[in-house]
Design goal:
The complex is a heterodimer of chains A (164) and B (117).
Chain A: E1 10-12, E2 18-25, H1 29-37, H2 39-45, E3 51-58, E4 65-72, E5 77-88, E6 92-99, E7 110-119, E8 122-130, H3 134-142, H4 145-162
Antiparallel strand pairs in A: 1-2, 2-8, 3-4, 4-5, 5-6, 6-7, 7-8
Chain B: H1 10-13, H2 17-27, E1 31-32, H3 33-40, H4 44-56, E2 60-65, E3 68-73, H5 79-113
Antiparallel strand pairs in B: 1-3, 2-3
Classes of the chains: A alpha+beta (164), B mainly alpha (117).
Chain lengths: 164, 117
């Protein structure tokens, strides 16, 4: 199926403890909300091409828990969970996020605020991630390095092939 | 990423909100010190202190013109930060590209049902 990308994600750092992710989608907000909150659908996109999502549990109510676990092709497992704090269907979800791979994980929980805004059938999605500390925010950003390294290796391989 | 607990790297240099304000101001072009003092509403010694930190990591360059000291942004020194954020951005971009596929299917399914919920 041909899918036109609606553009890349934009990441900005509004303050020392925040990360803001913004992206526009060519779909109405109730569908973006559905894809974001339905376990079988989350499993299809949350892996970011790095492997598979082995667990996606969503108890979508205030006080309910969510938990995602991803497994990369090289066997690296990463678990995340949190609690829903505020839910406005199709518009806004406030939840906590704990990365299970660090010591005292619960103390370093981030607060995620998802907002969906629709104009002419297109939806702007924002996720504001608020960490309790700058160190936590920076560590979170660094988790993306894994993918960056992979890209670098892919590029290196292409260069190596071109040298044959 | 291991980082020295000094202000001598670009990451720490821009961690201070006032210094980011200076960088924002300089993004619009070269500025004399007194203009930065005016923009930030701080005392000159404080502004000079922040400028010194930024200069040490190469985030700003300075030149003298007559009696004025003019500061300008040096984007190259900030590239490590840019790259760092870009990696994180790329991982979300890939995630959202998968989400595009899911959304396309949901849209078609909805059209097929003849309902728009």
């Amino acid at each position: 199926m041909a899918v036109t990308s609606s553009g890349t994600a934009t990441v900005t750092l509004p303050t020392d403890t925040q990360i803001l992710i913004t992206r526009e989608f060519d779909a109405p907000k109730h569908l973006v909300y559905k894809a974001w909150t339905t376990p079988e659908l989350v499993k299809r996109w949350w892996h970011a091409n790095r492997g598979e999502v082995t667990i996606a549990e969503i108890d979508l109510r205030v006080g309910g828990m969510w938990r995602y676990v991803s497994l990369t092709a090289d066997g690296f497992e990463a678990g995340f969970h949190g609690e829903y704090r505020e839910i406005v269907p199709n518009e806004r979800i406030v939840s906590t996020e704990v990365y299970e791979g660090i010591p005292d994980a619960e103390e370093h929980a981030a607060l995620n605020i998802l907002t969906l805004t629709e104009v002419d059938g297109r939806t702007t999605l924002t996720v504001l991630v608020e960490h309790p500390t700058k160190i936590g925010r920076d560590a979170h950003l660094n988790s993306g390095m894994e993918g960056g390294m992979q890209d670098a290796l892919d590029l290196l391989e292409q260069v190596a092939i071109s040298l044959r | 990423m291991a980082r020295a607990a000094t202000t001598a790297d670009a990451f720490n240099a821009v961690a201070e909100p006032r210094r980011r304000q200076i960088l924002d101001a300089l993004a619009g072009g070269e500025q004399p010190v007194n203009e930065l003092v005016h923009l930030l509403g701080l005392a000159q010694p404080q502004v000079s202190k922040h400028l010194r930190v930024l200069r040490e990591v190469g985030a700003v360059d300075v030149r003298n013109e007559g009696r004025q000291r003019l500061y300008r942004l040096n984007g190259q020194a900030l590239k490590p930060i840019h790259d760092w954020v870009k990696n994180y951005e790329r991982s979300w971009s890939e995630r959202f590209e998968q989400l595009d596929v899911v959304l396309e299917e949901l849209k078609q399914k909805e059209d097929g049902d003849g309902s728009d919920e």
